[in-house]
Design a protein that fits this description.
Blueprint (H helix, E strand, L loop, with lengths): L1 H18 L6 E6 L5 E7 L4 E5 L2 H12 L3
Antiparallel strand pairs: 1-2, 2-3
Length: about 70
């Protein structure tokens, strides 16, 4: 069963890499070891990762990072 989960995660990463445009952030919803929800974002433009504790924080980051002209 653990092997199947590992294979599924690998396929998800491969598929995500094929679909994700390199100029768009990649954002994943995750859970910590206590079951708390958080979001992890990767910015291809700056090659940096960010962690957010709320969806609102993610939206603010996206607006500030990608929609300020």
């Amino acid at each position: 069963m653990k092997i199947i989960k590992s294979i599924n995660k690998l396929w998800q990463k491969i598929a995500s890499g094929l679909v994700t445009h390199k100029n768009e952030p990649q954002i994943e919803q995750k859970h910590d070891h206590n079951g708390n929800l958080y979001w992890q974002a990767y910015d291809f433009a700056t090659n940096k990762s960010y962690t957010f504790i709320s969806e609102h924080d993610v939206r603010v980051w996206i607006e500030e990072r990608y929609h300020c002209f």
